[in-house]
Design goal:
Blueprint lengths: L1 E6 L6 H13 L4 E6 L14 H11 L6 E3 L12 H11 L5 E6 H6 L6 H7 L1 E5 L6 H15 L3 E3 L9 H9 L10 H10 L3
Helix pairs in contact: 2-8, 3-5
C-alpha cells in the first residue's frame, strides 16, 4: 500500500513530514511517495521556487526515512501538474499496488474543481487530514457528496493539527525571522545556501 503525497512543497516543512509519518503508521502504509508539482494548477505563488529546488529540498528532508521516497514524475511532464495524471501513471507502473492519495481537508472541499477528479477516486482511496482553516461541516458534506457522486473511498486521518505552513515559512524568511525547527535543518541550510524566498 502506497501513500501518494503531492503538493508544491514550497518549501517542504516539518508539518509535512510529521503528517506523512503519522498517516504511514495510522494506515499501515508500506511507503509514502512525495510528489512535488512542477506547475501546480491551484497555486499562483509569485515566490514559487523552481521545481528542481523544491524537489531537492524534499529529497534531503526525507533522506533518513526508509519509508519515504520522492518522485520526479511531475517534473518530467510538460504542462500543468495534475494529480489524476500522476495517479494514472503510477498505477500503470505498479498495477498490483493499492494507492492512497493524501491531502488536507481544505483540498477535499475544493476537489470537485480539480482536473478529472473522477480519475483520482478511480485510481486511489483518499486519506484526508484536518486543517484548521477548513470548515468541519463543509468537509463532512463534501465527503458525503463524493461518495454519492463517485463512489469515492475517503478516510479521515486522526493526525494532530500542525500549525506550520509553507506560506508562513516564506513570510518569516521575508521578515528576517527564524525558521529553524519549522523545516528540517538540512532544508534550512539549503534555503540559506541558495537564497530562496
Amino acid at each position: 500500500m502506497i501513500g501518494v503525497f503531492g503538493g508544491s512543497f514550497n518549501p517542504v516543512h516539518s508539518g509535512h513530514l510529521l503528517l506523512a509519518e503519522y498517516i504511514r503508521e495510522e494506515f499501515k502504509l508500506d511507503k509514502i511517495v512525495f510528489i512535488p508539482a512542477k506547475k501546480p494548477p491551484h497555486k499562483v505563488d509569485s515566490d514559487l521556487a523552481t521545481a528542481q529546488h523544491r524537489y531537492n529540498m524534499v529529497q534531503i528532508a526525507i533522506s533518513n526515512n526508509p519509508f519515504f521516497e520522492v518522485s520526479d514524475t511531475e517534473l518530467n511532464r510538460e504542462g500543468l501538474s495534475y494529480t489524476a495524471d500522476t495517479l494514472v501513471e503510477m498505477r500503470e507502473e505498479n498495477p498490483d499496488k493499492k494507492f492512497f492519495f493524501i491531502c488536507g481537508a481544505d483540498s477535499i472541499i475544493n476537489l470537485s474543481t480539480w482536473h478529472n477528479v473522477n480519475e483520482i477516486f478511480k485510481f486511489a482511496d483518499v486519506i484526508a487530514a484536518g486543517r484548521a482553516e477548513a470548515s468541519d461541516i463543509e468537509f463532512q458534506n463534501m465527503i458525503q457528496w463524493y461518495q454519492e457522486q463517485y463512489n469515492a473511498k475517503i478516510f479521515c486521518s486522526g493526525a494532530p493539527l500542525i500549525e506550520i505552513s509553507s506560506t508562513g515559512v516564506r513570510n518569516r524568511i521575508k521578515e528576517g525571522k527564524s525558521i529553524r525547527y519549522m523545516v528540517p535543518e538540512m532544508v534550512y541550510n539549503y534555503i540559506q545556501l541558495h537564497r530562496l524566498y
